[in-house]
Design goal:
Number of strands: 0
Largest sheet: none
Structural class: mainly alpha
Radius of gyration: 12 Å
Helix content: over 70%
Shape: globular
Order of helices and strands: HHHHH
């Protein structure tokens, strides 16, 4: 899922930044100023959150 997000960042930039800002309590500017490694780690950390486990499990089935 992380690679899909990263590869589509240009097409869905506003939506991805809005989603990440809403679930991370960071501002969009903070996200935009992150290094690629920090940004990728943030996505991984969000994907591993217990409250998103079911959601991302269902979404990942759509990607197969």
């Amino acid at each position: 899922i992380t690679s899909i997000i990263m590869s589509n960042l240009g097409r869905c930039e506003n939506e991805i930044y809005s989603f990440l800002a809403s679930v991370s309590n960071l501002k969009r500017e903070d996200l935009e100023n992150m290094s690629p490694a920090e940004f990728t780690q943030l996505i991984i950390d969000i994907l591993k959150k217990e409250e998103f486990k079911d959601f991302f499990g269902v979404v990942s089935k759509l990607l197969k």
